[in-house]
Structures are given as C-alpha cells and as structure tokens.
Amino acid sequence: MGTSDFIYRKDNVNWTVKELDDLILIVKYLLPRGYLGLTVYPFILLKNKNLKFDEVLMNHEKIHLRQQLEMLIIPFFLFYLLEFGVRLIQYRNWNLAYRNISFEREAYANEKDPDFLKSRPFWNWFKYISVS
Ligand SMILES: [Zn+2]
C-alpha cells in the first residue's frame, strides 16, 4: 500500500500494525518536554519506539488523526492554537490550558476506549468546547 492510500483513507480505525508502523516517526529530541507523542496528520511522532505499544497513547493520537482529517488538517492546527490561547487566558496555567483544548478533552476522555473511533460521530470534539 502506497503512502497516498494512507493519506486519503477515511477510516483510520483498522490500520494494521504494519500500516500504522509506517506512519510512526521516532523523534527523541523534537517533542516539547513532558510530551510523549504528537500527531501531525498522517504521522504520529513518538518520543521512543516502545511507546507504539502503549495502546492508550496510540488511541489518543489516533483520535487526533481523526480530528485533523475531518477538519482538513490546517484549520485543525489554527483552531488548536487559537483555543489554546483562549484557554491560557481562562486558566492562566499552561498545562490546564492544554488539557482543556476541546480536541484534548475529547482525546483524554476517550483514549481508554479502544472502540471509540469505530462509532465516533463526525466533529464529535465540538461537544467538548464548553467554557466550564
Ligand atoms: Zn492530545
């Protein structure tokens, strides 16, 4: 399967280990301190290679893949940064602001459910945008 097949594949739930493996990049020094993974569609950047066996982390990053895909990628990052700014004003705390970005709220709330992406509604993250 070529790379373009991945990029245009709508359903990123049932990737095989090999398929997913091709999209995982190990970047020891590129990630901000304290972060284990970062998703920039279609790639998942991980701090070390053992993390790809961490099912909760991988599910978290796959939720971000889905969010990015459904927002056509660039708008995802613009909105992510914009909301992070708003949350920083709201919480005055870097980590709290990050954890309360609606994309992160959705990912953290559902990362432990391995079947979440199978039934996740389109633009589901929007349910997590409340101010509280
Ligand atoms: Zn996240």
Structure, described:
- Strand 2 (37-40) and strand 3 form a beta hairpin.
- The longest helix is centred in the middle third of the chain and has 18 residues, at 74-91.
- A three-stranded mixed sheet has the order 1-3-2.
- The protein has one domain.
- It is built from seven helices and three strands; from the N terminus they run H-H-E-E-E-H-H-H-H-H.
- Mean pLDDT is 87; it is low at 1-10.
- The protein is mainly α and 132 residues long.
- It has helices at 3-7, 17-23, 55-70, 74-91, 94-99, 102-110, 116-119; strands at residues 24-26, 37-40, 43-46.
- It binds zinc ion.
What structural keywords apply?
132 residues, mainly alpha, three-stranded mixed beta sheet, 7 helices, 3 strands, 49% helix, globular, disordered N terminus, binds zinc ion
Task: Describe what is shown at a glance.
The protein has 132 residues and is mainly α.
H/E element order: HHEEEHHHHH
- The N- and C-terminal alpha carbons lie at a distance of 44 Å
Give, in spatial order, the strands making up the sheet with the most strands.
Answer: 1-3-2
DSSP summary, beta strand count: 3
Strand proportion, as a percent range, falls in 5-15%
What topology does this entry show?
Elements (H helix, E strand, L loop, with lengths): L2 H5 L9 H7 E3 L10 E4 L2 E4 L8 H16 L3 H18 L2 H6 L2 H9 L5 H4 L13
Parallel strand pairs: 1-3
Antiparallel strand pairs: 2-3
Helix pairs in contact: 3-6
